[in-house]
Structures are given as structure tokens and as C-alpha cells.
Amino acid sequence: MTARARTAHPYRDIDVIDARAPRFNQATVGAVSLVAVLTGWWPLLALLAAQLGIGLRFGRRYCLPCVAYFELVQPRFGEGPIEDSRPPRFANQVGIIVLSSATVAHLVGLTALGVGLGWLVAALALLAAITGLCLGCEMYRIGARLRGIRRRRIDHVELAELGQPQGSEGRGELVVAFSHPLCTECTSVIGELAAGPLRWVSVDVRERPDLARKYGVALVPTVFRVASDGRVLQEVAG
To answer: Which of these, 169, 91, 175, lies nearest to 137 by C-alpha position?
Structure first.
């Protein structure tokens, strides 16, 4: 079996991630949490919280499940689809909160609460690992959409800063795709636009983080349908 070569470096390209890596991490968290609640070794929950926190703070090189995946599993089976790393990162933050709460509950004698929270982590992490349904990731996506609607509604884009020449206002609608060059779904979106009849432009969020911030791009790919005068007609995030 020939493994597909890496397109995203696991430790440097931190704004994206192999989609299989979070599931491997979730399988690890779920399995260890299950052992903790079944055996009563609740300090394992504290160790999991600490490991997730260290990985988020200092990078994937210090995340043991991440290192195991990228050094042992990925070289053998190849790279999976590349996706935005922000949803799984948020899911890890949620995991830290719940695992830390379970640890505190055990420390203060609220054993039933600690066990319940441990079961919750084990169930949700194993569900994500087996099915790909990551509730923490979905929470991030929903929050991103709400932020885009409520906090930074984009009604107009400046065509000139997207590389559109002056005098292009009368050329009809424009599709603006915010993407990342390593994102698998972004590549598919760009391919569809290139094969279609619509006028379009791609904005690389790695090269233009200023535009990503200005237009509230919380997920890639994000696509805007823009009128010839710059009015935003439709937005599809993530």
C-alpha cells in the first residue's frame, strides 16, 4: 500500500489539520475516559485535561495522541482530507472544561457528578471517533454562523481590495471564495467555480488574514455572492 504524500505539515500548518487526526485524538480521550469511570481511577481525567491543555498551548508536538497519529498512523495510511483546524481546537477546549470539572468534582467529594461528567466525555469522544459527529465542532460552526450574522454582518465588500480593477462594476455578479490552499473542501469549491460560468475570485486567508478578519471569515471555505456594486447578496460559511 502506497500512502499519499503529505500536503500539510502536521506541526507547522496549524491553521489546518488532517481530518483523521482529531478522530484519533477523540478515540484516545474516549478510551481513557472510559477506563477512568469504569475503574474509578479518576486522576486519569485530570491527566487528559492537562494533555489537551498542553497541546493547545504549546502545539501538536506536545500532544501525545497527535504525535502518535502523525508519526505512526499517517505515514502508514496516508493523509486524510485537510480541514479548518478551528472547530476541533474548540472541541478540545470544551473537553478541557468538562474534564477539569470532573476532576474538581472528584476532589471535593462530588463523586456522582465526577463520574457523570466522565461518562459524558467518554460517550461524546467515542461517538465523534466512530461516526465523525463532533458536537464540540458543531458548536463552533453554529457559533461562527451566529457571529457572522449578529456581530459582523457583511453587507458590502470593496471590489478593489479583492483585485478587481476599476470599471468592473458593470460586469455582473462576482463570487468571492475565501479559502486555504491546503483545505480539501476549498480545493473542491475552487474547482467547481473554475468549471462554472460565474465570474469569481479566490482570497487565500493565509496570505490575506487582514481580509479574513475584516469580512468575519470564521471558517474556510466561505463564499460570498456579490453584486456588481459590491453589495453582498448571499453568504455561505463553512
So the answer is: 91
Q: Which domains, ranges and CATH numbers included, belong to the chain? A: 16-146 (no CATH), 154-237 (3.40.30.10)
d(CA 29, CA 92): 10
Coil/strand/helix, residue 100: helix
Partnered with residue 16 across adjacent β-strands are 84
**What CA–CA distance (Å, rounded) separates 165 from 129?**
47
What mean pLDDT, rounded, does the chain reach? 87
**Distance of alpha carbon 25 from alpha carbon 159, whole angstroms:** 42
Give the residue from 158, 145, 137 showing the smallest Cα distance to 216. Answer: 145
Cell match 460570498: residue? 224
Dihedral of CA atoms 45, 50, 51, 55 in degrees, nearest 10, equals: 150
The two beta strands, 82-84 and 232-237, are unpaired
CA distances from 98 to 84, 85, 107, 114, 130 (A): 23, 20, 14, 9, 20
Is 96 in a helix, a strand, or coil? helix
pLDDT tens, 181-216? 888 889 899 999 999 888 888 999 888 888 888 887
Under DSSP, the state recorded for 9 is: -
